[in-house]
Amino acid sequence: MRHGKKFNHLKRKKGHRKATLKSLSTALLKHKRISTTLAKAKALRTFIEPIITKSKTNTTHSRRVVFSKLMDKAIVQELFDEIGPKVADRPGGYVRVIRTGARKSDAAEMAIIELVDYNTDYASSSSSQGKKKTRRRGKSSGSSNAAATTTAKSEEE
Questions:
Q1: Nearest of 51, 36, 55, 39 to residue 114 by alpha carbon
Q2: Whether this model's pTM surpasses 0.85
Q3: Residues 25-49 pLDDT 10s
Q4: How far apart are CA 20 and CA 34, in angstroms?
């Protein structure tokens, strides 16, 4: 039974789960994008979002709280110096989970989890939002030609 099960336990004991999420979050903050299973990516999102929120305020207390979660001094330094100021105006939603399909060996659902502000592909598409997009409608010119031919046929008769 699943009574009181509020989060995914990832089929691990508490210590192993904490270590897994700690190493995944360290890798995500270091590389800005990682590939993992969908369940781990969703669990990592709930783990890392409060940490990134804490990094918006650069105080000694928030640094110590984040260090107690990550246990990597270089990553904490990078988080507060580089990532925190970049996401300061964002009110949440710092990471994006993108499904990539099933893994070949065991058919596990895979996903890419990435920091939102560090993907240049999405940033370039958001900058083009200022231009008005033109939409192509199917066979619009063909329908006007069809109307012209019907009027031409009626004139011939």
A1: 36
A2: no
A3: 999 999 999 999 999 999 999 999 9
A4: 14
